[in-house]
Amino acid sequence: MKPRILLVFANLITSIFLVAAGARTSVRQRTQSNNHGNISDLLDNLLRGYDNSIRPDFGGPPATVEVDIMVRSMGPISEMDMTYSMDCYFRQSWVDRRLAFQGGKETLALSISMLARIWKPDTYFYNGKHSYLHTITSPNKFVRLYQNGRVLYSSRLTIKAGCPMNLEDFPMDTQRCPLQFGSFGYTTRDVIYKWNSARQVAIAEDMKLSQFDLVANPTANHSTAPGFSHAEYSMLLVYFHLQRHMGNFLIQVYGPCVLLVVLSWVSFWLNREATADRVSLGITTVLTMTFLGLEARTDLPKVPYPTALDFFVFLSFAFIFATIIQFAVVHYFTKYGSGECYFISDLSDTESSNEEEDVTRRLIKNQPARRKSSASSTTRGRGNRNLAINGDSMIEVIPLSAISIPDRDPAVPGHWQISCMTCSPPPAPRQMPPQPQPQPPSSKRATSSASRRRRRRTPRYNSVSKIDRVSRVMFPLFFLTINLFYWYAYLSRSERIHYYNSNTA
Fold this sequence. Notes:
Blueprint: H1 2-47, E1 63-78, E2 83-95, E3 107-110, E4 123-125, E5 132-133, E6 141-146, E7 150-162, E8 174-183, E9 191-195, E10 201-203, E11 212-216, E12 219-224, E13 233-244, H2 247-264, H3 275-296, H4 308-333, H5 350-365, H6 367-379, E14 388-389, E15 395-396, H7 441-457, H8 466-491
Parallel strand pairs: 1-9, 1-10
Antiparallel strand pairs: 1-2, 2-7, 3-6, 4-8, 5-7, 6-7, 8-13, 11-13, 12-13, 14-15
């Protein structure tokens, strides 16, 4: 009997616990159902007789819409289209007393389906190009309802807006990209926009731009009158001040331009008889500079004014072109009869030495006639150089315009050329050149051989123009001076942006 009594007692206790648990579950379900029912009834009561086509406080003061923006990212920023894009949370808040309620909850998070049943402002962007709402995985927007009837409407937008840019200081410019928005249909009598006093435009801490730095984002309230209507419309403005980075342009444009200009100066150290070398160097640098200047403007619009980068490219091009003009001037004075020694011949064989000795003998025979001609020209005030033989039996050449060039002997094969070293001052008119003494044939051959050896050991050099010597100093100094003025003029502009004055409507 006792085991049966204990079993019955245990079953009874278990039944009591099950009944109690079921009662608590039922109470909780009834409570949740009542809460759901209360909220549903609350919303139904709020929307009963609600007309979403009529603004709040219709017939009274205008409805005030407070706006704030949270910028998550910005870019790309296009100079070709003069537009910029940004991803942001666009929040609007207004008070609709028809939606005020009393209850235990201070805030109601509503479904986005409620937006179709309540009034909301018809906000649009004045300078918008192509903006859209994010809809993955569902439309990115929400609605909050407060007890006093305040509605908070937030949405995630990607806004592409126009940005009129002034590229005169490019790439040292700072652009002011505006964002203008307001009501499309309601005038200031019905809806007024203003910035949220607690937060206006917030920038994400991790936001970075590739070519710009966001240095400021001032805001302003404004009212405007469209051309099709004389009524005023409330509008809010925010300007994003973007300062461009210089590093990319220093590496890709400014540095190569400077190196090309310096490369063109190498021609000042080339002898002026190297016509092909100097001309080819000048043409190569000009063509490279032309390509670099065109490549620098590929990402820029065809603006009707020159930019700072255009000025520098043109400056570099002008210096490179000036080196070619400089060589043309040098080459103009490098010609026969200019009075400068510049032709050097290398007498490396016996035949050329014999030819030169033959020319020497012919010139010595005509020496008295040339001396008379020199004396007469001196009387007229036109002094010319005379032919002289130095101690090493080297011929010093006078200007070719003052003497007649002897004819080449057609019986002797090959060509002869006058050798030229440093021109010495003309000898005194009364001094007679020493007459060669007759020597035996063996002595003559020994003297000729020794003279050839001395000529081969004589140091030779290329002629250098005085214009080249001056250009080696003047071109770098002038280029450095213009660069200092250029960088100072563009980098010292402290007022490249005029901030919008919110006091002016």
